[in-house]
Design brief:
Layout lengths: L6 E4 L5 E5 L2 E5 L7 H13 L8 E2 L2 H12 L9 E2 L2 E3 L9 E3 L2 E2 L4 H18 E2 L5
Parallel strand pairs: 4-9
Antiparallel strand pairs: 1-2, 2-3, 5-8, 6-7
Helix pairs in contact: 2-3
Length: 132
């Protein structure tokens, strides 16, 4: 179901990302374990409708999967687990979601620092369905 050409790139750590060659700024902000996972993520991204802010609308469950994938390569995130994604009224940047809780014995502050830029990019690109 892919109309847009997409390339997959493997980084030095062996993880995969997708990128749209005609629009280099449009690429995965999360890396994946396999090339197939990266392609599947692109398919979901490409099919997702856009909301009034221009963000792609994803399910809470899929967005939580992206948050977890973002944490995976961060050493500080070992033994840190994230709760579900929840809705809130759009903030001043237009984002309408957050992550409920962090659990586990890992380095919570270090994990948040490691994920900061990636999480900001997820918040810039994606929304969940508005609930009110």
């Amino acid at each position: 179901m892919q109309d847009t050409p997409v390339d997959t790139i493997q980084d030095d750590s062996g993880r995969w990302r997708w990128v749209v060659p005609s629009t280099p700024a449009e690429g995965a902000c999360v890396s994946f374990r396999t090339r197939e996972d990266a392609v599947a993520d692109f398919e979901i991204h490409a099919r997702a409708p856009r909301d009034g802010t221009g963000r792609r609308v994803l399910s809470k469950q899929y967005l939580r999967k992206l948050v977890s994938a973002l944490a995976l390569p961060c050493a500080a995130c070992a033994d840190v687990f994230f709760g579900g994604v929840y809705w809130y009224r759009r903030d001043e940047e237009g984002c309408n979601w957050g992550v409920a809780i962090m659990n586990g014995a890992g380095d919570h502050a270090g994990c948040l620092a490691c994920m900061h830029a990636g999480k900001a990019e997820l918040r810039r690109r994606y929304s969940i369905a508005d609930e009110a």
